[in-house]
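Figure-free illustration: sequence to structure, shown twice.
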Amino acid sequence: MPPLTNSSAVAAETHHANRGVAFGVGAYVIWGIVPAYWPLLAPAGAVEILAHRIAWSLLVMVLITAVLGRWAGLRTLSRRGWLMVTGASVLIAVNWGVYIHAVNTGHVVESALGYFINPLVSVLLGVVVLREKLRGAQFAAIAIAVVAVVVLAVDYGRLPWISLTLACSFGLYGLLKKTVPLDATASLTAESIVLAPIAVGYLLWLGPAGTFLDHGAGHALILASAGVVTAIPLMLFGAGARRIPLITMGMLQYLAPILQFSWGVFVKHEPMPPSRWFGFALVWAALVVFTVDALRSRRRPRLLAPIE
């Protein structure tokens, strides 16, 4: 096979990157429109939905892992690795459960806020846990976000606990995932293995009080589809992350909360008084500062690099 010319190589690289962007957009769009899915599982409650999501995710991920041949990483995972997986599993279960509860109780906008502030929480965790240095712009973004949370707490008459729980649980989840030497597919399979016994045990204990067998085949199929709804965006995310820079994935991540916010405001017509709009505007301002700083910090090493 003849070697690629420069133009062919550039075209191939562009195609590779475009596919990565498409995969990333697909993942975040699915995560953004999933608030339309969880209410379809009524009358199942949030805990029952979570248990089904975990149980069916295990089945889906075992099949995918077997097809892709990713069992080697799981078999050689150390005891410390499994401990980290267990911690990550608990955090993602909390995140999933709170998110399902929020959507099914009319708090889509508040859940979107959690995913808007998640990048800032991740930076703060990096400073507190990993002792990373905080740049001036990052400090400003976090300070603006703190003011926004105060404004929204006054507006809600309480702390936006749904937002803070989602942001902190997912931020800590991401922090633990950095310590697990598994790819996205094997990692989710491991997490499902850890959580599935508890989920299946809960469903067996629930027995006739559950909704799986008593509301028709359609309801049972929709509950079972929770495993696919969980796995597909994670597969797309993993495929996208391998093809495009992390900074690009970082830009795409805002698609999900934007779509969630739009669903809550324009479809579900959740209340948005002026004070709440102001709080969200502060969050968006913080994200603009954060994003611009991230872009500049990425370009700076290139500008300082010697010309060869």
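We now fold a second protein in the same way, so the two outputs can be compared directly.
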Amino acid sequence: MKFKTATLSIILVILMVLGTACGGGGNTSQPANNNNQASNNQPSGKATVIKLAHMSPELPDDAYHMFALRYKEAIESKTNGRFEVELYPAGVLGKDRELSEGLQYGTVDLAVITSSPMGNFVPAFQTLDLPFLFDSWEHVYRFLESDAAEELYKETEGAGIVTFGLIARGPRSVTNSGKAIESVEGLKGMKIRVIESPIFVDTFTALGAAPQAMSWGEVFTALQQGTIDGHENSIATINNERVYEVQDNVSLTEHIFAFTTAHASKMFWDTLSAEDQKLFKETAKEITIQISKEQEKAEEDFLGRLEAAGMNVYEIDRAPMRDMVKSVYDKFAQTNTDKYFKAIEELR
């Protein structure tokens, strides 16, 4: 009996030592995390991988890709490698609409998309599509730094999307082949591809054109085959997407200002600590403002590249166009809030 008792005692001591070595003691656990820092509690040396997608080409002076590259570098550096940002450019994960839906479903963590498609998910964003809303780049900057802009960003959270900020890409103009558009009369009856936005359709209808709402992925082929006469876009995009290969002319209508938006999925956002949320948002805002100012400076260079590629650039009197689109504002006011429109007007 004494032998059995001694043996049992030895076994118990061994089990206690093993249990302590394996970390099973309650006193060795970490403090509870009240900030939902699940994404930060990775084992040492293992980063949280984030998917960042956009639909633009991988060009060093493309606003979408510029943001992606700089944001990746900044986040990985500022978090000492706790996060690894994987880039999916050139529409690998879809175009604007698919990326917006991906943010909602959590299949995409971060995305840089054209602002107009967001109006299909958050009606207040349609305000940015109103024609001749901004007088100048300076007017745009005043808005980007305003409280009204921050309030607009918060509107997307109800759709499961967190908005970091806007990148100003410059005013949009019209391209076509054949006879140049040198006045608003030249748009009459012309099949112009526009973004899938009701305001874009209404704007070009008011200008006398026959607008064709179409996904960007279909545009180059449609221009090439002549199923549409022309399209409208920012000067940077006309260059970067090589539209000069299938179009002869650029008419500087400057009818609507182009923006790109930087977003996070709300599902991903909610896994971040309060500190990381602040870091992600402040870093994004800094980069969006930086790129906006660079896009303004690059606009003349992009025009020069288009001319060098063989495109003809035409100035156009925009005063008659401003009068023709007043009906667009009237229709917008019937179905949408004028809160942001008024705020932008006050910043003139």
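Summary for the second example: The first strand starts at residue 48 and ends at 54.
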